[in-house]
């Protein structure tokens, strides 16, 4: 697995430091609210777990599984819900937690959906942002790191469902995925 890595982009220590900073910022912004953190599965799991442990207040959590890729390696722009929320968003401050923002289609769709369903507010928190890939303008209030347009793995991010368990973020050698 380690032989497939081109370069480590964000170390485990850098990740933990930044996640704690983000948790403090979220706490400061939401300490007097009814916060529902919604994780977008699957890649968000490590970030979501670390982030929620760094927020020193009562929170509610839920998860969704959505796709705008289908069988493609790039977004089709059509978002499909594969697993919906278990709880209502009515009168909740919803914070969507995402591992990486690429095209923006999924987050734009989810933000509109939660507002239509009666959320009090909807904000977005992403661990990684590939701003150069954005096809839809979507406001992101909390960003861990901006990254260049490379194929990245680790800390929840995968290639063919592999590498998610790496404790750091790395670029993948091109010969692995081409």
Automatic annotation (TrEMBL):
Obligatory cofactor(s): Mg(2+)
Gene Ontology cellular component terms for the protein in this record: cytosol
Record-level GO BP terms: GMP salvage; guanine salvage; hypoxanthine metabolic process; IMP salvage; purine ribonucleoside salvage
Pfam family of the protein (one): Pribosyltran
InterPro entries per record: HGPRT (IPR050408), Hxn_phspho_trans (IPR005904), PRTase-like (IPR029057), PRTase_dom (IPR000836)
Keywords: Cytoplasm, Glycosyltransferase, Magnesium, Metal-binding, Nucleotide-binding, Purine salvage, Transferase
Domain Phosphoribosyltransferase, chain residue ranges per copy: 14-159
Gene3D superfamilies listed in its UniProt record: 3.40.50.2020
EC code(s) of this entry: 2.4.2.8
Location of this chain's protein in the cell: Cytoplasm
GO MF entries: guanine phosphoribosyltransferase activity; hypoxanthine phosphoribosyltransferase activity; magnesium ion binding; nucleotide binding
Catalytic activity: GMP + diphosphate = guanine + 5-phospho-alpha-D-ribose 1-diphosphate; IMP + diphosphate = hypoxanthine + 5-phospho-alpha-D-ribose 1-diphosphate
Pathway: Purine metabolism; IMP biosynthesis via salvage pathway; IMP from hypoxanthine: step 1/1; Purine metabolism; GMP biosynthesis via salvage pathway; GMP from guanine: step 1/1
Its biological purpose: Purine salvage pathway enzyme that catalyzes the transfer of the ribosyl-5-phosphate group from 5-phospho-alpha-D-ribose 1-diphosphate (PRPP) to the N9 position of the 6-oxopurines hypoxanthine and guanine to form the corresponding ribonucleotides IMP (inosine 5'-monophosphate) and GMP (guanosine 5'-monophosphate), with the release of PPi.
Similarity-based family: Belongs to the purine/pyrimidine phosphoribosyltransferase family.
PANTHER family: HYPOXANTHINE PHOSPHORIBOSYLTRANSFERASE (PTHR43340:SF1), HYPOXANTHINE-GUANINE PHOSPHORIBOSYLTRANSFERASE (PTHR43340)
Protein name as it appears in the record: Hypoxanthine phosphoribosyltransferase
Upper taxonomic lineage: Bacteria, Bacillati, Bacillota, Tissierellia, Tissierellales
């Amino acid at each position: 697995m380690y032989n497939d890595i081109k370069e480590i982009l964000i170390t485990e220590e850098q990740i933990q430091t930044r996640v704690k900073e983000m948790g403090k910022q979220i706490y400061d912004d939401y300490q007097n609210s009814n916060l529902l953190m919604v994780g977008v599965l699957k890649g968000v799991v490590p970030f979501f777990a670390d982030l929620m442990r760094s927020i020193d207040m009562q929170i509610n959590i839920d998860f969704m599984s959505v796709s705008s890729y289908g069988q493609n390696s790039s977004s089709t722009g059509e978002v499909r819900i594969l697993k919906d929320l278990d709880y209502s968003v009515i009168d909740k401050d919803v914070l969507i937690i995402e591992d990486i923002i690429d095209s923006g289609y999924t987050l734009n769709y989810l933000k509109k959906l939660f507002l239509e369903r009666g959320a009090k507010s909807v904000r977005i928190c992403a661990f990684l942002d590939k701003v150069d890939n954005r096809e839809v303008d979507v406001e992101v209030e909390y960003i861990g790191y901006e990254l260049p347009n490379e194929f990245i793995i680790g800390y929840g991010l995968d290639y063919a469902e592999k590498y998610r368990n790496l404790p750091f973020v790395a670029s993948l050698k091109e010969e692995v995925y081409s």
